[in-house]
Design a protein that fits this description.
The structure holds two protein chains of two kinds.
Chain A: H1 2-13, H2 18-37, H3 47-75, H4 87-92, H5 95-105, H6 109-119, H7 124-131, H8 135-155, H9 161-165
Chain B: H1 3-12, H2 25-33, H3 38-48, H4 54-74, H5 80-90, E1 118-120, E2 126-127, E3 132-135, E4 141-150, E5 155-161, E6 165-167, E7 179-188, E8 193-195, E9 199-203
Parallel strand pairs in B: 2-9
Antiparallel strand pairs in B: 1-3, 3-6, 4-5, 4-7, 7-8, 7-9
Helix pairs in contact in B: 2-4, 4-5
Classes of the chains: A mainly alpha, B alpha+beta.
Bound molecules: zinc ion.
Chain lengths: 166, 204
């Protein structure tokens, strides 16, 4: 189950549930089962990937429908929830966390994307892959982005110059 | 602050407002494939990376992409037939018989904006016979097809109904303490289909 192992690795790294991967595999099995029943005519090199992605998209669509249904069941149509944090949680947040977040918000877009992913726990190869950047470009933008971020924080008296130069 | 401290503070923060609306699933796919201008993808990503619902959706897509790549990498790249067979084995389909020509299942690769939402059974349920299914009505559906599958994905039986509920009849010989997969597919007026998730349940 090579598919499961590799899909599971990302899922695990990103905190998705095992059930998500199981659901994906089950979807995929049925797709292949149907394709097999129908003679496997359309199978070409990209087939597995297309089937896997369309399976994932179907799962995403269904969840969105389910989410809307359950919200409507409760108290009529309401827009999708935007963020989990309520006012209480926002008050709880440390000033420091807020400042870091705001400093990230202020970075130039390509650097900001790299920094967000990095601070979110994505590995550098994953950043390069998702942004379709070369490894060198990724390293460069990430390095500069983190330097910008530290400079902004330093200007607010957060951190030390020594760290800033590292 | 070192990288770890930055990470910790960053992950602790929560922005009060999200930039832009939730992207459509198709836009997440563009993001994954790197299609379209980078500025647009970066704008999408700015939302997705901060959104508690879209973020996991993108990660699910990445999982699918990475898993399939691993399966295909292993497969010999010579002929598609060998490739497909190897890929199928890789995800645990078992043996394959290649038969003649037939059209591929039209739904296999087609995107759909609607789907069937099952009310029961829920995944992992242990239920007494008769096994009952219920689902939310799909707008524009002309009929529904219930498919009962073995744990290995073999079709056991299929039934059509215009209703939004169904009890699996005795003739299907659903056995006690066995597990099964079931799903519901709706046929729409334009002959296309949308489907529910595949739900595994066991019989008491
Ligand atoms: Zn979102």
């Amino acid at each position: 189950m090579r598919f499961a192992r590799f899909a599971g690795r990302i899922a695990h790294d990103r905190g998705l549930h095992q059930e998500d991967v199981d659901e994906l595999l089950q979807e995929l099995r049925v797709r292949f089962w149907r394709a097999r029943k129908d003679g496997l005519r359309d199978l070409s090199a990209g087939y597995v990937r297309r089937a896997a992605i369309s399976a994932a998209l179907d799962i995403i669509r269904r969840r969105r429908v389910d989410r809307n249904v359950s919200i409507e069941d409760q108290d009529g149509a309401r827009p999708l929830p935007t963020l989990a944090a309520g006012p209480a949680e926002l008050l709880d947040q440390s000033e420091l966390a807020q400042r870091v977040a705001r400093a990230v918000d202020g970075l130039a877009p390509p650097r900001r994307a790299a920094v967000r992913m990095y601070l979110d726990g994505y590995r550098r190869e994953e950043i390069a892959e998702l942004l379709h950047w070369s490894d060198a470009k990724t390293r460069n933008l990430l390095y500069r982005g983190l330097a910008d971020l530290r400079a902004v924080l330093l200007a607010q008296g957060i951190g030390s110059t020594r760290e800033n130069v590292q | 602050m070192n990288d770890e401290e930055l990470r910790r503070e960053y992950q602790r923060s929560a922005s009060a407002t999200l930039p832009g609306a939730h992207p459509e699933p198709e836009q997440l796919e563009l993001l994954l494939n790197g299609d379209g201008p980078e500025a647009e993808r970066l704008a999408l990503l700015e939302h997705v990376l901060r959104c508690p619902t879209c973020g996991p959706e993108l990660d699910l897509l990445r999982s699918a992409s990475e898993g399939s790549r691993a399966a295909e990498r292993r497969a010999p790249a010579t002929r598609w037939l060998a490739l497909a067979a190897a890929a199928l084995l890789m995800i645990g389909i078992g043996t394959l018989t290649f038969r003649g020509r037939v059209t591929p299942a039209a739904d296999v690769l087609r995107g759909k904006s609607a789907s069937v939402s099952l009310i029961e059974p829920f995944a992992g349920a242990s239920i007494a016979r008769p096994v009952r299914l219920a689902w939310h009505r799909v707008d524009g559906a002309t009929s529904y097809r219930v498919e009962l599958l073995s744990k290995d994905g073999e079709l056991i039986s299929t039934w059509n109904t215009a209703d939004t509920a169904f009890a699996i009849p005795d003739s299907a010989r659903v056995a006690a303490s066995e597990s099964y997969d079931v799903w519901v597919r709706a046929t729409l007026a334009d002959r296309t289909e949308v489907s529910s998730p595949i739900v595994r349940f066991s019989v008491k």
